[in-house]
Amino acid sequence: MPFGLTFADADSEYSDADAVIFGVPYDRTATFRSGSREAPAAVRRASYNFEMKHFEHTHVPNIAIHDLGDLDDHIYPEDMREEIKFSAAPVVDDKKFPIAIGGEHSITSPIVGCFEKISVISVDAHLDSRDEFMGSPYSHACVMRRCSDIVGIDNIFVLGARSISEEELEREDIIPHITSFEIFEKGMERAIEVALNSVKNEKIYLTIDIDGIDPAFAPGTGTQEPFGLHPMDVKKLIGAIGPRLAGMDVVEICPPYDNGGITSNLGARFIKEGLSVYSKHNLM
């Protein structure tokens, strides 16, 4: 493929790959600003900004990466979910490391459903724990509730939440979480320890909603929320998950509102961090 259409260094055939990247350009349930369907292409372009290896990971073996390209852009979330399952399930079954580039956060739960036994840790400004929103149980505002339907609420944890509705806090089964305010007061290391000890299944799927990061560092998202996490905190989280990391996604990047592409750049860097951490613990 021409430059910029695949993720940087994703030059391996599927059969030889340790990790498989795919884009899901879906944003049909966006509730404020749409445009995240453009993110897979923008994040791929941004990935060419970086060295093949970052200096803190030079001791890590090279990882063979395959880029499947983008899934189709469907109208209905039910159709999007079915195509994700069709595409992601073989990646999981073949014991490769799946990385999805959203699109909106609703793409996460069908990927989680492809794993047999998994926990989910989410970086997000929101709990996304409604039963339904605007008439759909598959809205991006419901994704952690849908994930909890699959893996159980004791295998879900959200870091960095700071925009939570009364509806989500008044129910008995509140999604376990630590707010960004508590992280600022008590430190990210403690928050990571709480999250890792909270979830029960050993392997972890990490989903990074870019609005979990403070908009000073990641302005290109559909629902900006001030008082967010620092990018270095998310880097620490990826490293701390370590040998438990089984898959990841980066979602809710909105290129039309991105100043100079810095949010796409950050999303690409998080993916490269995930690739390095996975390589360190599985290929050495």
What level of helicity do the residues show? 25-40%
Distance between the termini: 30 Å
> What does the overall shape look like?
globular
Helix count equals 9
Radius of gyration, in angstroms, nearest whole number? 17 Å
* Portion in beta strands: 15-25%
- Strand neighbour order, sheet with most strands: 2-1-3-8-7-4-5-6
Which structural class do the helices and strands define? Answer: alpha/beta
Report mean pLDDT, rounded to a whole number: 93
What does the model show?
- The protein has 284 residues and is an alpha/beta fold.
- 33% of the residues lie in helices and 16% in strands.
- It has an 8-stranded parallel β-sheet, sandwiched between helices.
- α7 (188-198) packs parallel to α8 (231-241).
- The chain is globular.
- It starts with 18 loop residues before the first strand and ends with a helix.
- The mean pLDDT is 93.
Which key phrases capture this entry?
single chain, 284 residues, eight-stranded parallel beta sheet
